[in-house]
Amino acid sequence: MKIFIATTPRSGTLFLTEIFKLLTDIPSYHESIPYCIGQTSYEVNNDCVSRDTQYILDEKVRRIKRDSSPPGDYFEANNMFIKSMVWTVLDNFDDVHCIYLHRNPMDVFFSLAARNWKRGWDWVLQPGWKLNRLKTVKPTTYHEAVMFMWY
Questions:
Q1: Inter-residue contact 41 to 126 (CB < 8 Å)
Q2: Quick one: which of 85, 90, 95 has its CA closest to 54?
Q3: Of all residues in the chain, what percent are helix, strand and coil, respectively (each to 5)?
Q4: Assuming Cys at both sites, which of 13, 73, 84, 121 could form a disulfide with 69, CB separation 3.0 to 4.6 Å?
């Protein structure tokens, strides 16, 4: 079985990974490379996947297969799963499970702000992207997008 997380950044994914490592025999990873952020996320969510991005997605599948236990178990806590690699994972594996991890949007916002997160756009599903079902009337700032797209 393959277990992934659907969540925002700054929501406890590292903690959950450590719990899985401690309490299960499932190989457990936190934001395993490739992360599928930035350009990869943009292309996947705008239905314009380049050869380079397809390579990154294929590499993700190869690494999941390589890092899975002999029965095929794997756990990854990565907030980009639901934003970038969900379709690739579902196309390549039959036994996918997803844990929805919720954190108050204001707590996410303040956690990001406290870290003065400069590369935040790389990790955010942006409201103007083609395949994003939730849209805004005008482009948003980074912090508006974090609050609007809390996952």
A1: no
A2: 85
A3: 45, 10, 45
A4: 73
107-115: Cβ within 8 A, 24+ apart: 107/10, 108/8, 108/9, 108/10, 108/11, 108/146, 108/150, 109/143, 109/146, 109/147, 111/10, 112/9, 112/10, 112/146, 113/143
Q: Say how far apart CA 79 and CA 5 lie, in whole Å.
A: 7
Residue 49 identity: V
By the 10 Å C-beta count (0-12 exposed, 13-18 middle, 19+ buried), 115 is classed as exposed
Q: What is the CATH number of the domain that holds 124?
A: 3.40.50
From first to last of its 151 residues, the chain has per-residue pLDDT tens of 999 999 888 889 999 999 999 999 999 999 988 888 889 999 999 999 999 999 999 999 999 999 999 999 999 999 888 889 999 999 999 999 999 998 887 888 788 778 877 666 677 777 778 887 666 777 777 777 766 655 4
Q: How many domains does the chain have?
A: 1
b/e map 61-81, b = 16+ CB within 10 Å: eebbeeebeeeebbbbbbbbb
List the domain range (segments joined by +) for residue 122. Answer: 2-148
